[in-house]
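Kindly go through the following sequence and its backbone structure tokens. Advise at your convenience whether the structure tokens fit the sequence:

___
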Amino acid sequence: MTVANGPPSGSASAGLISNSNASILAYCVASISMTAVNKYIFSGGSWNLTFFCLTVQSVVCLVAVMIGKRFGMVTTLAAYDSLKAKKWFPLSILLVGMIYSGAKSLQYLSVPVYTIFKNLTIIVIAYGENVFFGTKVSRIILLSFGLMVLSSVIAAWADIQAAINGLHAADATTATAQLTAGYTWMGINVFCTSAFLIGSRKVMKQYNFSDVDTMFYNNLLSIPVLVVASLFLEDWSHENVVRNFPPETRTVLIISMIYSGLGTIFISYTTAWCIRVTSSTTYSMVGALNKLPMAVTGFIFFGAPVTLGSVSAVFIAFISGIVYAWAKVMQSEKAKLALPTTNSTNTEKDMKV
């Protein structure tokens, strides 16, 4: 999200905007709260209006971007271009698959397991970029990939053992079936996320999309797909609506949906803020370290089983994130030291997952 240049008036506001610790804290709060709110929405046992929820999130995000443009807070959003929209639409289909499969996997899996398995997307993207863009994969990055795979295996084993031993809220048979569904949706999510991010990078470079352009077209083009899917694939009977929005939690659910829509913008803004007042190195490390409190949130607030295997998996995933971030920083520093040539003038831009 790009905002108008210049800090707000007042020394206190200006000092806050330039405070590196505040930017790091804001980014961590935005990313952790986004995952926690989505888990709260989708984890209800009777929840089955996922397409509708994703529609609300996209509408809220799109309206916020348009309001930001209207009042001058968004400065880089170009006018609607039908050619760009046509080129981006296939990616919007992948985006719908990505956010829907992510929601379904978060519905069935615990936050720690979901966080750990999201790391596998990094591996698929890295090899996809190696094929399509010639990006190098160093030995240290390979080491981090090995740790990511190991943490995922341990997490899955610990989760299955917890289900068999009755540590989940549901009985063993139901819990095992939910885990099977969760891992299936997680696999679909890894594929859709990787395909979307690699494809969007290509289109962004071709049409010189800004971050706000990407956000705008993502939401604008995905809304019709989500609406059609919700109308034809979801149960809109009165009984089912009441089941999904029970009177005692209806207001909280609606507020959560609105917040999760705004959360996309919060994460985008705090990411840019953190990089601007610190450095890309610090941001990479913060992204890696952020995995730990996110997993702890799942243990504390959502009753994820705390076992030796689950804690070990989180710890190994935490270490793998640090190793990967450090490897990317070293790779970036090495690229800066390399002498530029006429045949190679483009710089690689790290992709956050």
Observations:
- The CA atoms of residues 30 and 279 lie 18 Å apart.
